[in-house]
Amino acid sequence: MSAITDLNQLITSIKPELNEKEFIFTTVVGEVGDYLALNPLASFVETEGLTLILDKHQADSASIEYQGVFKQITLTVHSSLEAVGLTAAISAALAKEGISANVVAAYFHDHIFVPEDKATKAIRALAALSESV
To answer: Can you tell me the distance from the alpha carbon of 67 to that of 22, in angstroms, rounded to the nearest whole number?
Structure first.
């Protein structure tokens, strides 16, 4: 299957899936190799430190500090890394409902991390967006 670039086709095909795990974002000092035992879902090197996205239970077990707990929503459509407008459409739909969206684009899919207590509302908002096109 090839990646989709057409915005309307992407939106009608997003089919969001909610991951039941709880995730946290944190920043640490060091390199990602120093934290591989925590099995980070994702990492990003910033000037201020290393950002990790971790399973909440892994973070708690390692006494890692964080603020906020998030749920992961995966857009199961195979979106192209060159597609234009999907992130904006998703963010706008969630912003309209007062839901923050932390988007991570991976090779096959986009993943949105939303506050845990707003995950169900976010799924409904994304479904409504998909049906609106």
So the answer is: 13
pTM for the model: 0.94
Of residues 79, 118, 109, 105, the one with CA closest to residue 17? 109
pLDDT tens-place string over residues 21-70 = 999 999 999 999 999 999 999 999 999 999 999 999 999 999 999 999 99
Find how far residue 11's CA is from the centre of its chain. 16
Dihedral, CA of residue 104, residue 57, residue 118 and residue 100, to nearest 10: -40
Distance CA 28, CA 49 (A): 6
> Does residue 1 have a pLDDT over 80?
no
- Residue 127 Cα distances to 93, 94, 123, 130, angstroms: 10, 11, 6, 5
The secondary structure of the chain as a DSSP string is: -PPB--HHHHHHT--EEE--S-EEEEEESS-GGGGGGG--SEEEEETTEEEEEEEHHHHHHTT---S--EEEEEE-S-B-TT--SHHHHHHHHHHHTT---EEEE-SS-EEEEEEGGGHHHHHHHHHHHHHT-
